[in-house]
Write a structure and sequence with these properties.
Layout (H helix, E strand, L loop, with lengths): L1 H26 L8 E5 L5 E2 L4 E7 L11 E6 L5 E3 L5 E3 L2 E6 L5 E10 L5 E10 L37 H32 L1
Parallel strand pairs: 2-9
Antiparallel strand pairs: 1-3, 3-7, 4-5, 4-8, 6-7, 8-9
GO biological process, one term: response to copper ion
Keywords: Copper, Membrane, Signal, Transmembrane, Transmembrane helix
GO molecular function: copper ion binding
Length: 199
């Protein structure tokens, strides 16, 4: 019965592969980082009425930390001033700041947020402010009301335009990768042991 013998020897290999898939599959989703799903106003949009609230929404919840989350609205590009009070408020996966805009022109929203997995995401985007006739304009301030925690600068994200990983997140990635390697080793070892027992 050669075919039966081959099937018996293949069985441990199938079990090991299945085990590896399960273990790698469990580690995969945890390594995915938070992503931006939308902003208000939209990047590159033309705004004609006071938005009132500026926001960045993400695919995962944000950490409601007293420091670390920040949003700054500035403009116009020709003579920038800053608008809004504080560093914004986190609700679920959204960071929002209430602000009224000033003179027409190009405005920039710069933000920084910490996901619940300790991964830091930050970026900035621009929109055009072209207020309709009669829309009240704010004066703004020469300095932002929100400074980055521990950055020593007056902007919430000195690395705006990119995303980074704090040491805690980097350690988490290393642990997940290590777990995947360990799972592979266990699968190989299990295969060898079972094959020897069958032989």
């Amino acid at each position: 019965m050669p075919s039966l013998k081959i099937r018996r020897h293949r069985a441990p290999l199938v079990v090991a592969i299945a085990l590896g898939v399960v273990l790698f599959g469990a580690a995969g989703p945890a390594s995915a980082h938070n992503q931006v799903t939308g902003t208000v106003p939209a990047d590159g949009s033309v705004v004609t009425e006071q938005p009132g609230t500026f926001s960045v929404s993400t695919s995962d919840a944000l950490l409601q930390a007293e420091t670390g989350n920040a949003m700054v609205v500035s403009g116009p590009a020709s003579d920038p001033r800053y608008y809004g009070e504080g560093c914004g408020v986190v609700t679920g996966g959204t960071l929002a700041l209430d602000a009224q805009l000033g003179q027409p022109g190009t405005y920039t929203v710069t933000w920084r947020a910490i996901s619940v997995d300790s991964h830091v995401i930050s970026d900035s985007y621009e929109f055009e402010w072209a207020p309709s006739a009669g829309v009240p304009l704010a004066e703004g301030t020469v300095e932002p009301s929100c400074a980055a925690a521990g950055s020593g600068t007056n902007t919430p994200a000195p690395d705006a335009g990119s995303s980074g990983t704090e040491p805690a997140a980097a350690l988490g990635d290393v642990l997940w990768i290590g777990g995947g390697v360990l799972a592979a080793l266990v699968a190989v070892l299990l295969t060898v042991v079972l094959l020897r027992r069958k032989s």
